[in-house]
Design brief:
elongated
């Protein structure tokens, strides 16, 4: 029977060109790799090498054996990944979300309902989330609109409404509401890792520039000390009282007022049912 470790040695020999260099790369002795080459010929039942004085090279059959060895090692590696991923899926609930706010509700609820499961989440754009659903990479998805695919189970979950926050001295401070067209051209503070909101703001306000902050502390200091407007939503928590001295103005465009949908395959509907029982006034 073919041994994967021996096949790896054969491939390394083909790549390095000599037994000594292959042995050095593999951190084994040259006699060891020599015995491996001899054993592989016995297993295949054919000659794989041309032998000269103090040197061997692959013959045509040996070159073919290396080609097949590469395919076998690739298949073995893929088998390992597939089995491990399947086992992980049995113990993991994977969530792909378009925005962070829904995860503030989803993650604690699933952790409570399934204490023995690992809850994994990631922020992705909508096309990537749909790919995750199609490939069954995720058990649950959160999209900013109703899924267009009939084979998914969909249910409305949360509403998130965007507002702009400005100092009292700002030109917009006396407005009761604003639109994206009215905000277009103003420069904004923006946090990173805000999901689809980032792209949406850039599309709706192409003339604006965004000072994106990856460090939360730096973002908070800029909100306190600068006059640049920033965004908040009805779901965001202001635990640091950052917005106490700012005026919050709702953005009325439909794009700024989003209904999130939970989306999953039918076999994951139990997770969705747990989330539909969340007690919050923001549930649709």
């Amino acid at each position: 029977m073919l041994d994967l470790n021996e096949l790896e040695q054969l491939i390394t020999f083909a790549e390095m060109g000599t037994l000594s260099l292959a042995a050095e790369k593999l951190h084994i002795s040259q006699p060891t790799i020599t015995r491996t080459m001899q054993h592989l010929e016995e297993v295949f039942g054919v000659s794989l090498f041309e032998r000269g004085k103090n040197k061997i090279t692959l013959n045509d059959t040996g070159i073919k054996a290396v080609e097949q060895a590469r395919q076998l090692l690739s298949a073995a590696d893929n088998a390992l990944r597939t089995v491990r991923a399947f086992d992980k899926s049995l113990h993991t609930i994977t969530i792909s979300s378009c925005a962070p706010a829904p995860l503030w509700y989803v993650l604690p609820s699933l952790s409570t309902a399934y204490p023995d499961m690992t809850i994994a989440s990631s922020l992705k754009n909508v096309p990537a989330i749909c790919e995750d659903l199609d490939s069954e990479f995720c058990q649950l998805a959160i999209l900013p609109h109703n899924s267009q695919y009939n084979h998914y189970v969909n249910t409305p979950f949360l509403k998130e409404n965007l507002s702009v926050c400005v100092p009292a001295s700002h030109d917009l401070a006396k407005r009761s509401s604003v639109t994206f067209s009215e905000l277009n051209g103003f420069n904004f503070l923006l946090k990173s890792e805000i999901g689809f909101w980032d792209e949406m703001c850039r599309v709706q306000m192409p003339a604006s520039r965004f000072l994106v902050q990856t460090n939360l502390f730096e973002f908070e200091e800029l909100v306190r000390e600068s006059s640049l407007p920033c965004f908040t939503t009805n779901l965001a928590k202001d635990d640091q009282n950052l917005l106490t001295d700012r005026i919050q103005i709702p953005v009325t465009d439909s794009e700024a007022n989003v209904t999130y949908y939970l989306v999953c395959h039918s076999q994951s509907i139990a997770y969705m049912n747990v989330l539909k029982r969340i007690d919050t006034n923001d549930i649709v």
